[in-house]
Amino acid sequence: MKIAIVTASDRASCGDYEDTSGPAIADWLETVVTSPYRIIRRIVPDGIESVRDTLVELCDLEGAALVFTTGGTGPSPRDLTPEAMALTIEKELPGFGELLRFAGLQQTPTAILSRQTAGIRGRSLIVNLPGQPASITLSLQAIFAAIPKCLELIGAGGMTVSDRWGAEGHAAPRLPDYLRPPS
Fold first, then answer.
1. Residues paired with residue 40 on neighbouring β-strands, in sequence order
2. Residues in domain MoaB/Mog (predicted)?
3. What is the 8-class DSSP label of residue 33?
4. Which end of the chain is more exposed for a tag (fewer CB within 10 A), N or C?
5. Residue among 48, 176, 45, 171 at smallest CA distance from 110
6. How far is CA 41 from the centre of its chain?
């Protein structure tokens, strides 16, 4: 199985900034995925065309079953990953974005500014993740139990994961304390 990681960052793509988010995803996958897989990495500038073209290449030409993007999901003018996704996917899976934002609220109230989403292109699942390594870990922990089943349902092949991350052993994120009603 091929798993692609796309970092959307103007600074990282031109070498002004070291990409730490892409390696954070790869490191996390190494601890969770137990079936054989190969990572394909790309670092592209922020922007609709660069992200869209890379996603199309990875899904259609490289045959990546799972594609993670990192970065470009905030509200700033150059954060255009969701716009690129909208032009790339055939089906949106809004539950991923909803859970990603909910999980992010455990870390920071500004998680509500995130525009993360997920969708399907052919037999590929594409998931937008945030650009900060700590947020990436939290995000993957929140959504990963659904990924193997989604890959199976879209015909992308099987993925086995450590018992802790299977759908049966996964605990959903809980409401952060600052959002809980007073007792």
1. 4
2. 4-150
3. B
4. C
5. 176
6. 13
pTM for the model stands at 0.90
Rounded to a whole number, what is the largest CA-CA distance in the chain? 55
Return d(Cα 119, Cα 97) in angstroms, integer. 10
Q: What is the dihedral of CA 141, 49, 157, 153, to 10 degrees?
A: 80
CATH code of the domain covering residue 58: 3.40.980.10
The count of domains in the chain is: 1
**Can you give the pLDDT at residue 74?**
92
List the beta bridge partners of residue 70: 7, 129
Q: Compute and round to an integer the Cα radius of gyration of the chain.
A: 16
Per-residue 3-state assignment (H helix, E strand, C coil) for 71-100: CCCCCCCCCCHHHHHHHHCCEECHHHHHHH
Structure token pair of residue 151: 């890959």
Tens of pLDDT, residue by residue over 35-82, are 999 999 999 999 999 999 999 999 999 999 999 999 999 999 999 999
Domain of residue 85: give its range. Answer: 2-179
